[in-house]
Amino acid sequence: NPAFGRYDKKRTPEVNINLPAALLSRFDLLFVLVDTPNLDNDIALARHIAFVHQHLKHPELDFEPYSSDLLRAYVAEARTYEPVIPSTLADYIVGCYVSMRKQSLDENGQYDSKKIVGTPRALLSILRLAQALARIRFSNEVNQSDVAEAMRLMKEAKHSTLQREDIEREYEDEISRIFGAVREYMETRNTMEARIADI
Fold first, then answer.
1. pLDDT tens digit string along 25-41?
2. What's the DSSP call for residue 15?
């Protein structure tokens, strides 16, 4: 549970979770799940809970779930693999790690306190996640798609700690940012015209 009762995305994960950064950096992935009000989801959840309490069982599913025996057998088989990272992937992994470190910087080249900084432990996380993904494929060798998926998972975990505006800003190119600033200027002043000098 958050330190202040509700997770505040304007604060860093360390402050919200009330754990030191050194301890948080030991987790390979940190996803923040925030309960945001949504009418459709709230109605569906309330109906589900009411059904379970009324009938003492879950509603009928419209699909056949995997059996626990199948899942246990799959996990047991995956654990028999010990994936290695081929030397051909070394430069790609180094490039991914360096790119992650750069994304932790603000416009002035300083580490942004709102962002989760990619530490050397993050590099080990990339390697562990890539190896886990290779195990899922029943492979003894990590490939580039495993590393790319590990990076995607880390990026999504980071985005779960950010506000929507920060995520959108991260994906925007310079022209889109300028257009967004002009649009915001015009919307806040309720006007359809703006001089460049005023912005």
1. 788 998 888 888 889 99
2. H
**What angle (nearest 5°) sits at the alpha carbon of residue 18, between those of residues 16 and 23?**
115
Tokens matching residue 40: 């459709």
Q: How far is CA 65 from CA 44, 51, 55, 174, in A?
A: 20, 20, 20, 46
DSSP at 192: S
CA distance 160 to 171: 14
Q: Which helix or strand (DSSP H or E) is residue 46 part of?
A: helix 39-55
> Among 131, 150, 116, which Cα is nearest to 84's?
131
Cα of 142 vs its chain's centroid, Å: 22
Phi, psi of 111 (to 5 degrees): -70, 130
Residue type at position 113:
S
Q: How far is CA 163 from CA 6, 10, 12, 110, 158, in A?
A: 14, 7, 11, 20, 11
The pTM of this model reads 0.72
